[in-house]
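Re: beginner question about structure tokens

> Can someone show what the tokenized structure looks like for a real chain? I only ever see the sequence side.

Sure, here's an example I had lying around. Input first:
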Amino acid sequence: MAVALTQSQELADQATAHLVQKYSPSGARIGWMMIASIFIEAWDLYSISFLLVFLTAQFHPPALLLGLASAGTQAGAIVGSLCGGWLMDRVGRRLMFLGTMVMFIVFALAQAFAPNMESLAIIRLLLGIPLGADIAVGYTYIMESMPAGKREAMGNRWQAMFAIGEVAAIIVITAMFAAGIMPELLWRIALGLGAVPAILLLLLRFGLPETAIWLIQKGRFREAKRVTREQYGDDLDMLPDNDVQMPTGRFTDFFRDIWSDPIKRRASLFAWIASWAQALEFSTFAFYLPVLFVLLGVSGILMSNLLTLAIYCVAIVSGLVGPQIVHRIGQRNLSIYGFGIVLISLLVAGAAIAANILWLVPVAAAAMLWGHYWDAENVMTIPSMVALPRYRGVASGFSYIHTKLPQFLGIFLFPAFFNAIGPANATFFTAIFPLVGLLAAIVILPEVYGFIEVRRTTPAAAPAGAVSVSASQAA
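And the corresponding structure tokens:
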């Protein structure tokens, strides 16, 4: 029985390695659909940063409660990332993908009817659960629906979608403010609007198939053959025509597999460290740019929003350029360049604030976001890519925790920290985070662009231009 199970697992791994090298137009469509879902989180995360002024004026909350309402979705996403990733490896990618959208729609609409700041903070905590799970599911779909080389570029596009979500939030909120909508109503409309793209995406997802790789790893070979025949015109002849009962890996097996391979170990360790670095550099300085501009006297609310809009238009360009050049410079250099730019920009911004050279602050902020959208691009792509398919949901979810936990801490605690030591010192302190990320990219990260997981016993040829890495090759 054990021998038959081992043989079935080896056949499943052969089929998985085979599919990672195949291209299907539907795979690209699925990839874009996954990236589009990030717009929803971007809208919710960024819109709240422009609504803090209105919430403060209406409810007069203490700094910690204001920070909790701002960062609530990040805390909920920690739970959603881990639990969603674990569930996804057991019940399937498609079921989780549909379920997360339904949950988000309910809680997004509930925000608009919150009677006070305490209720809003609780709702946003719950809202974060489907957001965290959805990102984990999305990255798993990308890694299992697109071939090596293309899945890296698609995964890296999440930052461009974040920037687009930021710009959309700025435009809509600024337009409502300029139109004279009462602040007490404006913030409710803005938060509730997040349900609109979620509804559209839910309708698009109904026809989404389960990933063939998950079906293979679960031993559902007949269904996997049908899906691959429709998507790739491939019958997966290496697999038998009957289903096989396959064991579900334990959570500890994921860590054991990652730690047994030096390439996967270094890549994952870097991604976790870089996730903390990029999340903290953003959630401290960049997230509070609208508030920072007002407090520094750079401009009023309307002009501050327009200035932030211009800065995030620069970020969109950065988010689009990064995935286009990653095949030339690699994931390692992308991280090095990104963290290096952020480090220099924050030092310049801190000096400009200290010297009261206010025109230089927006310039430094724009440069900072250019670098940030590079150093943040691959922190989810890399760990999701190097994980075995049977642990990929857990890998994506666990990695997203390392983004959401520091974002929660940064957004929650930074207002009080900012008030305690002042904007210039707070900006200088923030420069520690890109420095850590830069050192991690230089010292820890191997080049993993084009990575293909290959079993020791069943090596497969990598496509042209890709880097094929296996446990035996890495040792």
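Each token stands for a local structural state, so reading them left to right follows the chain. The radius of gyration is 22 Å.
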